[in-house]
Structures are given as C-alpha cells and as structure tokens.
Amino acid sequence: MCACGLVWCTCALLATLLASFGLIMVPGIEQAAARLVFTHLSGRSLSIAGNVITARHFTYCLGDYLGCVKDEAARDMVNLFMWETGIGEFVPFSPNQLMNGDGVLPLHFSHAAYREVAYDLLAGRPPDMMVFSNKTSLPAGVMPDFEPDILLNLDTGSEEHTNRRKLLADMLPALAKDRSSGDEHFRVPTGVEASAAVISGATMGGLKRKVFDTVGYNLFDWLFEVNVENELAELFEYDGILAPLVLGIPAMSFQGRRMAKIRMTAFDKVTHSRVGKAFMRAADDRGMDGQKRLSEMVWIAMFAGYGGTGNLAFETIKRILTDPAKYTALFRSDPEAFMLEAARLHPPVAGMNPMAYRKDTYHKLATGKTMKVEAGQIGVTFSSAANKDPQVFRDPYNFVPGRENAERLLSWNNEWGDFSRCDTVAGCPEAPRGCPGTFLSMRLVTATVDFFVGGIEGGLPLKQEL
Ligand code: HEM
Fold first, then answer.
1. Is 337 exposed, middle or buried (CB count within 10 Å of its CB: 0-12, 13-18, 19+)?
2. Mind listing the pLDDT tens digit for each residue in 128-150?
C-alpha cells in the first residue's frame, strides 16, 4: 500500500511537472512564468527555475540556439528588465558555470548598457573563463596548445592586450579594413555546388556543411595563405565539439584530444606558410613567443573566424530562403548594407567573453530588486538584445538594409561605424575592443552569401519548404 502510494505520488508529481512544462510552451504563459520567477526568486531557486525556462526555450526552438533560443531569451530580458534600465539578471544554462561559479549573473542587454562595458577603456576580464566554461575544468587540448591565456582573457587597455592586438593588426594583412581586389580571390572548394537543384534538395545540415566549407577554405587562404581543402571535414567536426563547450557543457577528455589533433594539423600548415613564418618572426622580435602567439591566432581563427563567419553566412542564407525573390533582390541592390542588417539581426556571437567587475556594484533592476555584484564577479553582455534596442533601431525586428543607424550594430563588440574609424584593427580609444576580424569576416560572409544567392536566383521561383 505504502509502495503503491509512493509510485502514485511520483507519477502525479511527474505528470504535474510535465503539464507545467507543456504549459510554458505557450509564449504568453512563459512570459508570465518568467516574470514570477525573476521577480520573486533569488539565489539557488532562481537559478533552478531560470534553467527550466531555458530548457523550455531549447524545446520550443527544437534546439536551434542561434536562430531561435537567443531571441527567446532576449525577449524575456526586455519584457522583464526594460530597455531603459538595460541591465537584468541572467541565469546561465551552463552546467560548468553552475558547478564552478555564480548561478545568477548581471546581464548588460540594452545598447547603452552593452556599450558601457565594450567601450570601457579599462574593462576587466576573468583570466579563468572560456566564455561559459571555466578553463580549469576543460580537458587538455581544448585551449591553445602552448598557453591557455587568450586575448579574450586580458583586460582591455592592459599592455599585454595592446601588444597582442598590434601584432595581429601588423602581421595579418587580411584583417585590414580595405584590401585591393587582387589580394583576395574567392574560391569554391571541390564538392561544393550552389545550383538551385542542390540548394533546394539539401537538408539544413547538408547546406550548413557546404556554407562552412566555403567559409573555412577561403578563411585560411585569405588569412594565412594556406590551403585546407583536405581538412574541411575536420574543421566542421572541430566546430561541432567546440560550440557546446562555449556554452559551458562539460567535455570529455577524448574530445579534447581530438580537438588538439585537428588543430595541430592546421597549425602545422600555418607555421610553414609565408604569413605564419613572418608572424612568428615579428612576435619574437617584439619579445613575445612567436609559436605561442601563432597558436593562439589559429585557435581564434577556428573559433570566431570559422564558427562566427560560418554561422552568420548560414543564418543569412536561411533567412533568404524564407522569401527568395524578396531577399535576393535586396541583396543584389546593396550587398554590404544587406549583410550589415543580417549581422544585426543574426549576431552569430552572443556578446563578449564574460567581463569581470573591478569594484562592488549595485544594479537597481526594473523588477524592484537590487542586485549586488562584488568586485571580481563576472557579468555578461548580449548583442542579440542590444542590436534590437528600439532606442537606437526603429522597428528593430524589421529587415531594413541601409536603415538609420545601420552602422551602430554591436555584433563585432564595438559599433561597426566607430571601429571603421580606427587606423588599424588593433583598435583606438573611440573603439577599444572591436573584433579584429570585423572586416575580414564581412568580406568573406558577403562573398559566400553572394555565391549561394547565385544558386538561389537560378531556381526562382523556388519551393519554400527549406
Ligand atoms: C561574423 C564573424 C565574427 C563575429 C560576429 C565576431 C565577434 C567577436 C566579438 C563579439 C568579439 C569580442 C570578444 C571579447 O572581447 O571578449 C570578438 C573578438 C575577437 N575576434 Fe571576432 N568575430 C567574428 C569573426 C572573427 C574573425 C574572422 C577573426 C579573425 C580571424 C576574429 C578574431 C577575433 C579576435 C582575435 C578576438 C579577440 C579580441 C580581443 O579580445 O581583444 N573574429 N569577435
């Protein structure tokens, strides 16, 4: 009888939990639940309930993190914490962060609040984080081979940060804003076709692979003058392992070993290239360790360079396929304006690596709470929300290439317009921490989308089931 009662109670509890989870699939109910949770809970209970809401977003979005989950989370932040305040509480859905750090973090989500951090000339960075993973908990092979401290871990304005950025700007001509057309030849790797038949017949996974192969092939050619045609499958595999780690999902040691092996093949090619050799020599001449610096650069190229640019190209092509006639015409009329707008609405990187507060800070939140953040604690920024701040972008959800304030997007951390005015991609006081790959990724993503648009146009009118 007792055992029966226990089973019955457990079943009833599970059924109630499942029904509640089902109910929060309805957007209005989810928003009300999020309001209750973030207004009345704190500490561990907020952390647990916040993660249930995130699990709801992943279920609702069928796992599409870039194309949907980020937007759902951004909508919650704005509904709860209001644009005017711009700072809210964020529950990272990172098991790694939950085990090794704080369960609730301050989130800078409005355009002004994001800028406050990204333009801070002395912004602090936690030395031990790789986005939402604590580096000490990552297996060997995930971080760069010779030194786990990467640019993302260095405080803005520190001597080391400034010197490393100058090295990139001086020794990697492909990062420059302006390149003559003879310097970069866009090529299509063997096996990638963009005919209408191929695009309409491809699964989303198959199309993604073609887009990423095209990006990876040209990225390594333009950046290092290295041919990685034979390594494209491994680059794609590497990105598939790295992406969950960025979100703080724990990794196995065999995954670390596999990443190290794949990266070493690419690194080996780059060390033997003309660009790689000159880069290492210049680093040594400046009192740095050339091998460590080049290894860091290859690591970043395989992370933000390949993954960031690949995802932006893929998300843009997905948007184009929702209304091929409209979007291909818009693209053709001004490709750069089109891509800036695509990067505003589909930022492939959620924001910066976490920042570290340098002094105790109190945030008065729109939910009525006051959030105390102690010196050393981490905080996060969120470009998916900041880029849709109606205080800067009118009708922010509409796709309007060439819109007013088009250059104020924060997808590359500092506004495109501000960063463009720096003399080099090392940065300048007006834009101290823009992504050094801003202009390279823009040229590459435009060329890649142009190639696939050619195929899509060939099949107009296309069936729109993709
Ligand atoms: C669409 C593609 C890309 C996006 C959206 C993007 C975005 C970003 C963002 C938001 C940051 C700031 C991170 C932080 O300060 O913590 C960053 C940093 C960085 N990105 Fe990119 N990136 C892209 C492509 C690239 C490419 C192609 C490269 C070069 C191959 C690159 C190299 C870097 C480097 C070296 C940093 C570190 C800068 C620093 O910490 O000072 N990125 N990127």
1. middle
2. 999 888 898 899 999 998 888 99
